[in-house]
Amino acid sequence: MKTLTKKSVSRRNFLTGTATIAGLAAASSALPISVANANHTETTDKLPDFIKWKKRSALIVHSSKTMETHRTEIGSSLITPIRHIYVRNNLPSLTDEQIGNRKDWKVSVAGVKNPKTFTLAELQTLGQTTIATVLQCSGNGRGWFPHKPSGSQWQTGAAACVLWTGVPVETVIKACGGLAKGAKYMTSTGGDAPKNLDPKKATMERSIPLKAHKDAILAWEMNGVDIPNAHGGPVRAVTPGYFGVNNVKHLIKLDFTAKESSVKYMKSSYRISPLGKKGSQYPSCWEMPVKSWVTSPSQDGKVKSGKVVISGVAFGGTKKLSNVKVSLDFGKTWKTAKLVGPDLGKYAWRQFVYETTLKPGFYNVATKASAGGKSQPELRMDNRRGYAHNGWKDHSISLDVV
Amino acid sequence: MKTLTKKSVSRRNFLTGTATIAGLAAASSALPISVANANHTETTDKLPDFIKWKKRSALIVHSSKTMETHRTEIGSSLITPIRHIYVRNNLPSLTDEQIGNRKDWKVSVAGVKNPKTFTLAELQTLGQTTIATVLQCSGNGRGWFPHKPSGSQWQTGAAACVLWTGVPVETVIKACGGLAKGAKYMTSTGGDAPKNLDPKKATMERSIPLKAHKDAILAWEMNGVDIPNAHGGPVRAVTPGYFGVNNVKHLIKLDFTAKESSVKYMKSSYRISPLGKKGSQYPSCWEMPVKSWVTSPSQDGKVKSGKVVISGVAFGGTKKLSNVKVSLDFGKTWKTAKLVGPDLGKYAWRQFVYETTLKPGFYNVATKASAGGKSQPELRMDNRRGYAHNGWKDHSISLDVV
Q1: Which of B84, B207, B210, B360 makes the best surface tag, with the fewest CB within 10 Å?
Q2: Which residues neighbour A374 within 8 Å (Cβ) at sequence distance 6 or greater?
Q3: C-beta of residue B205 within 8 angstroms of C-beta of residue B263
């Protein structure tokens, strides 16, 4: 276990522009905090102020602003408790002071026939719906890439299933007279870029294919509460089926553009490139591939022989989940698991349960989900930054049945 | 606003038997706490220890152990955040010390071919599912009965929509060889009765018609976390569509009986009797009737004229919700609201949205839900203790549009 030393780059320095972009990963909190791997050995140090309301014991702390949820701590009740949800921010979360009155928060809408700026209060008069989506970091599973890509070494826990309430993007477009001609992308801009830095480098702006706007919403609520600052309130673009980074936090602009944004976070970051290569010609982290993993039992403990219930979660990204299979013999044979609990729609995960009887011994428990005609691969698509891991082998667990 | 004085009957005294049943309502917490009505004027005093993790500002405190959720604080995201969920316990919640190791908590099963006692760990090897239900106190809405029945003066907030995870009762019965002959009721017993008191008076035991067991579960998780003590962990009987009291907390026994339990909480309490009458010949608080109410906007504030989104929740008890209608003119005319968000099944509530354009003025906003061929009545079924209020008139709100 190693301990981060207290950072000299405080958020105040950062926001007045004395920090560089390269310093971003280290900034945001002046609190010293212990860091650990995923084997539950981290200390119970306090969490940084901006997420002090989270449940410390549910989280694995990778750095002062990246925390993943323990595999067993997403719960078995479909929706991840908000205090357990992972934290991953490229930029320091805005503070209450920076946000001001939430109802006055402004989102401008462009690429429409009648461009307008809406306050949150105005957005709330346009319409309201609730959707459930899997929110997952592009790098979830990075910890298992054999070439050890840089970045947080997530295993399963940079993912959550969340209920979002907000206004459908379609409704917002209608209130602006419809789309302007030539729109090919929905481009969302966050308001968390430090003002004195080059906007091309510091602005979190993401473009996704236009078709993805149909199920997208501009959300102000998350699991029944105003979206916390750490998760991008007062308004966040929620882009169902697309990796977390596309769900732009602290949303200040929604645009429908002919081209992809040219900021760094779109052009060069979050590209799935071969080992040793990079560039904007490679695919962006957009649609999430089909994926599943076991959440219970924990591989940390021993399981009593006899009847055993193995449960977990599975989702199809933008495709409806077809099935989940379970193997107890390193993928030689597979049996179909039961899908249980409410079906919150294709963008949410489903819970699966596999009931079996086990004799004492060590078992490897692997799960393989299918959606839209595709199944999880055994390994992964190797790529420079370790994105989009959905291989079933690395996600399998060892069970010690006694 | 009035303030309860510090109670001399501490839980310790209570549990050693020096308190009487009559003292139950006053016991459970030694904390002084302010009490208020539903008009948001209560103080921000701390909550009692057993629910200190709740969000104080989301709750209206009626007594030291009854708190309802503010009308606007159930959130707009379908599932009520656990920190906002109402608190209502006939008996003091068991403490961690009383419960001990949760996995060792025992539930005996009788009225089956092979009666057995299961630990929680054993129940968890039998099977697992998740269901969403409306959890609602029988007395929710009591605050509007004109004859001022005794008991907590709930308005809308003794209700929540909750995700529960546990083992289906059907699965437990199967593990016990099936039902014994003659079973007509599912009878659940809680372990929170103080040991030195007359079990007939102090035991929380509830019988419901046998058919209701088909969708019931023995739950150990609530909204993704172990069921908190205040909500009846480690194991709670969840009886979908039936009033809260039937969802027995701290479950120690599940029985399938030929007769209804003869304890006070079944025989005489929770009976829907005419004004001035009581007795076991009157209907028990079992199935919840169809009901709906507005949750946003709040009637405490002013709403800007122009486009307005009115939203709320509606449910059909044991029946699937058919529709929700909205009236802005004291029930003279009704328009159909949109049902939005995921459908979690007939036992959950659905969110409804009614989009309209309003000129300045005062409006009465009433909602009327229908399910199973029945609609909410205008008034209510008057009854001695003020149970099962589902009249649309009392549940309507006033809107001040400026």
Answers
A1: B360
A2: A289, A290, A319
A3: yes
DSSP single-letter state for residue B288: P
Inform me whether the C-beta atom of residue A225 falls under 8 Å from chain B C-beta atoms.
yes
Cα A270–Cα A274–Cα A279 angle in degrees, nearest 5: 50
Q: Which domains can be identified in chain A, with CATH numbers?
A: 2-88 (no CATH), 96-267 (3.90.420.10), 291-401 (2.60.40.650)
Which pLDDT score is estimated for B44?
54
Residue B82: predicted pLDDT: 98
Selection from B310, B72, B296, B344 nearest residue A132 by Cα: B344
Q: Which of A134, A166, A186 is nearest to A390 (CA)?
A: A134
C-alpha–C-alpha distance, residues B198 and B24, integer Å: 13
At A44 the pLDDT is 54
CA distance B194 to chain A (A): 32
ipTM: 0.89
Q: Round to whole Å and give the CA distance between B330 and B307.
A: 20
Cα distances (angstroms) measured from residue A259 to each of A181, A201, B136: 13, 18, 52
Instruction: Give dist(CA B95, CA B364) in Å, integer.
Output: 45
Q: How distant is the Cα of B333 from the closest Cα of chain A, in angstroms? A: 22
User: Cβ of B223 and A132 within 8 Å?
Assistant: no
Radius of gyration of chain B (CA): 21
If you measure CA to CA, which chain B residue comes closest to A122?
B307
- CA-based nearest residue to A151, from A249, A254, A285: A285
pLDDT digits (tens, 9 = 90+) for A152-188: 999 999 999 999 999 999 999 999 999 999 999 999 9
All residues at 6 or more sequence positions from B206 whose CB lies less than 8 Å from its CB, including other chains: B187, B188, B245, B246, B248, B261, B265, B266
Is residue B24 within 8 Å of residue B45, measured between CB atoms?
Answer: no
In chain B, which residues have their Cβ closer than 8 Å to the Cβ of A121? 304
First to last CA, chain A: 30
Tell me the H-state helices in B287-395.
392-395
Please say whether the beta carbons of A133 and A348 come within 8 A.
Answer: yes
Contact between A28 and A89 (Cβ < 8 Å): yes
The residue in chain B having the minimum alpha-carbon distance to the alpha carbon of residue A341 is B130
Q: Please name the residue that has the structure tokens 């991840």.
A: A80
Q: Residue B46: its pLDDT value, please? A: 85
Q: Is the pLDDT of residue A284 over 90?
A: yes
Using alpha carbons, select from A270, A283, A287 the residue that is nearest to residue A347.
A287
Question: What is the Cα–Cα distance from A6 to A31, expressed in whole angstroms?
Answer: 6
Mean pLDDT for the stretch of residues A274-288: 97
Question: How many C-beta atoms lie closer than 10 Å to residue B183's C-beta?
Answer: 18
Q: DSSP state, B330?
A: T
Strands A106-110 and A116-119: antiparallel
